[in-house]
Amino acid sequence: MGHKTCILVTGGAGYIGSHCCRALTAAGYEPIVYDNLSTGHRSFVSGEMVVGDLIQKEKIVAALRKYNIAAVMHFAAASLVGESVADPQKYYVNNVVGTLSLLQAMRDAGCLRIVFSSTGAVYGDADSKALPENFPCNPINPYGASKWMIERILTDYRLAYGFGAFCLRYFNASGADPAGDIGECRSNETHLIPRAMMALQGYIDDFAIFGDDYDTPDKTAIRDYIHVCDLAAAHVAALKRLQEGHSGGSFNLGTGSGFSVREILATIKCVTGRDVPHSVKPRRPGDPTYLVADSSAAREILGFTPNYSELSTIVETAWTWHKKAHPAKT
Question: Do 216 and 231 belong together in one domain?
């Protein structure tokens, strides 16, 4: 590994983790991916990789020691809201039990710095204002609850064991690497923007707006969309703060602007020149009405400044990736 500082990236073959690996490399670090490839893609990994599960504590310890890991970026988790409602045990086992195994491995290996992938879902069904970190956390689905439990665990580990731990609560991760080499690619795609693009390309014929009875101006749910490259930059900034001796904390990552489902579809039409064919279906269980971040604390502590998160840029980079990854059906 030469002289470079090695960072273990759990879930580094996935959507957000792979973008963070690129950001780490660009910043002079050596990412070591730890992934079970259940949803990740080996083709997204360009460097060293260890195939394993979070519950395989001794395998994690071995990797931490072999590569002299300085810190961990933890993305590995089950992350589908609807599935978490239907199968909460999967989420508490994968996310909470898996993280406890990882943390024990880190303690055993003497690696006490972690940047954790949390979520705006910890807030639950919040009001229409941009949410600061001190807004009460009241998740309304098991996915959000599992992430909130891990944040609480990390708070205790910071106090009891001297961990440095940043919990980054990001909102709707979106977009793709501008080069078009990696992006959102799941066998069971549930996210709005990639599903809309797959509908345009003829890969799905059941694209739907879930709920048109929300208490919003156009009756569809409103979210804060943050470009995945901006998320990656924030993770690198958090890592550097840990290396400087900062103890961490919980920080929102978003733009402070909310867009409805219909506004997203309108932007996709502007970028692609095509209407997205869709139906309207009932709300999904566990979906809040409005979720927008106040990221002023991240700006102050991490120097977080979104550079790619204009909605048009998000859609353009996603469209570039989808056209490359999934040529349109004829």
Answer: no
Phi first, then psi, for residue 267 (nearest 5°) are -70, -40
Do residues 253 and 231 lie in contact, with contact meaning Cβ atoms separated by under 8 Å?
A: yes
- Cα–Cα distance between 187 and 260 in angstroms, integer? 25
Instruction: Write the burial class of residue 42 (CB in 10 Å: 0-12 exposed, 13-18 middle, 19+ buried).
Output: exposed
- What does residue 297 show for φ and ψ, rounded to 5 degrees? -65, -40
pLDDT (mean) for 2-6: 81
What pLDDT was estimated at residue 1?
A: 44
How far is it between the farthest Cα atoms of the chain? 59
State percent of the chain over pLDDT 70: 98
Cα–Cα distance for residue pair 74/141, rounded to 1 Å: 21
Classify residue 253 as left (phi > 0), alpha (psi -120 to 50) or beta: beta
210 neighbors 283 (Cβ within 8 angstroms)? yes
The model scores a pTM over 0.90: yes
Q: How far is residue 69's CA from residue 63's CA, in Å, rounded to a whole number? A: 8
Mean pLDDT of the chain, nearest integer: 93
Q: What is the pLDDT of residues 55-101, one digit of tens each?
A: 999 999 999 999 999 999 999 999 888 889 999 999 999 999 999 99
**Is residue 137 situated within a structural domain?**
yes
- Residue 62, Cβ neighbours under 10 Å: how many? 15
Say how far apart CA 173 and CA 184 lie, in whole Å: 10
DSSP state for residue 168 in the 8-state scheme: E
- Amino acid type, 307: N
Q: For residue 296, give the H/E element and its range.
A: helix 296-302
Domain count within the chain: 2
Domain of residue 15 covers: 6-174+225-253
Query: Where in the sequence numbering do the catalytic residues fall?
Result: 143
